[in-house]
Design brief:
Layout (H helix, E strand, L loop, with lengths): L2 E9 L4 E2 L6 E2 L12 H5 L1 E11 L6 H13 L6 E5 L5 H11 L6 E5 L12 H14 L3 E6 L2 E4 L3 E3 L8 E3 L6 E2 L12 H7 L13 H5 L10 E5 L6 H7 L6 E6 L10 H12 L3 E6 L12 H4 L7 E2 L5 H14 L3 H8 L10
Parallel strand pairs: 1-4, 1-5, 5-6, 6-7, 12-13, 13-14, 14-15
Antiparallel strand pairs: 2-3, 7-8, 8-11, 9-10
Helix pairs in contact: 2-3, 3-10, 7-8, 10-11
């Protein structure tokens, strides 16, 4: 029996065509089937669903909830899901889905491209092939397929604007790397197809239905979360202004390993004012690689009195969306802390 795969299209560069206003997403999911090798397309029973036609810079919390709800509602009917998506916010979407679909036992793969799929030399066709390779591997959970690699969704960051290797797996190795296979169009040999595409689920526990895996509580995210990058000479008024916006959470990117200029008492007082307002503060390093730790230097240790939460080695995308997810579940600060410091989908090294 062929595995059933659903392709959900959301727009992005991979679906773009040229217009008088510049590139705009126009292609529907059906167009992507033409880029798959005949054998690869024939190995699966593929269904299509066009959800959005958006530049990914316009995708946010409401769209993430729609994606997660759509996948949950069809989870029992399919063996895997492929989401075509713009690259700019793909890592945010992948991180959010990692939390909203935590506990799932099927692959949810996001891919896109740096050039429109119908442009000669585009990376779109090879990225689609890499995405479908995930359905042969037995890997489960949310992941990004790009430039021959499968990257855990909550560990991916876009670090390059033009290069085809736009994404990096931050602080952990990629789940799989097919980049040595020429055009990334690797197709498993016949015996691999037979063993991976036999009837049944990709993972153990195939009898569990969506309600058992995810529960029946409605999905929720708290969008009132901000991201601020500390810089030399930052005015205390900038932090104070954050407190007037109605934010419930703030991810603050600190210097180096996690340092804050605590000798600047006015800036420290402004940060304390945010904490006193009940705003949950998550701190992380501005450096994408290696963990943050504000306890190393005296300039960072004073943050402990504000009960900030350390993101440790999480990506910025995973930190922002995890805070939205945690605050969507509870408004109690200690419960938010416990949720944030729990490894939900491989996003944090404990």
């Amino acid at each position: 029996m062929k595995k059933k795969i659903m392709i959900l299209s959301t727009g992005g560069t991979i679906a773009c065509s040229e217009s008088e206003r510049g590139l705009i997403p126009t292609a529907a999911a059906e167009a992507f089937l033409a880029y798959l090798p005949e054998r690869m397309a024939g190995d699966f029973d593929i269904s299509l669903l066009d959800l959005f036609q958006l530049d990914s810079s316009s995708i946010g919390p409401s769209h993430w909830l729609t994606l997660a709800q759509t996948i949950r509602s069809r989870y029992d009917d399919f063996d895997g899901f492929l989401i075509t998506h713009g690259t700019d916010t793909m890592a945010y979407t992948a991180s959010t889905l990692s939390y909203l679909l935590a506990g799932g036992n099927k692959p949810v793969v996001l891919t896109g491209s740096q050039l429109p799929a119908d442009v000669p030399g585009s990376d779109g066709p090879s990225n689609l092939k890499t995405a479908f390779q995930a359905f042969y591997t037995g890997l489960t959970g949310v992941m990004i397929a790009f430039c021959g690699q499968l990257i855990r969704g909550c560990r991916a960051s876009k670090l390059r604007t033009h290069s085809f290797n736009a994404f990096e797996s931050i602080n952990v190795p990629p789940l799989m790397d097919f980049s040595g296979n020429g055009d990334n169009g690797y197709q498993p040999p016949a015996d691999t197809v037979a063993s991976c595409c036999s009837s049944g689920s990709f993972a153990h526990g195939e009898s569990a239905c969506a309600a058992q895996l995810f529960g029946t509580q409605p999905l929720s995210l708290e969008p009132r979360v901000g991201l601020l990058k500390l810089h030399p000479g930052m005015m205390p008024a900038m932090l104070s202004a954050v407190g007037q916006t109605g934010l419930r959470g703030l991810v603050l990117e600190l210097f180096g390993i996690g340092n804050f200029p605590t000798e600047n008492t006015a800036l420290m007082d402004a940060l304390r004012g945010l904490s006193d307002r009940g705003i949950i503060i998550v701190t992380k390093s501005q450096c994408p690689f290696e963990p943050s730790n504000s306890d190393v230097y005296a300039s960072g240790r004073q943050l402990a009195q504000l009960h900030v939460i350390s993101a440790r080695d999480m990506t910025t995308e995973a930190s922002v969306t995890k805070l939205m997810w945690a605050l969507g579940k509870t408004s109690q600060p200690e419960q938010v802390r416990q949720l944030f410091l729990t490894n939900i989908a491989g996003e944090i090294t404990l």
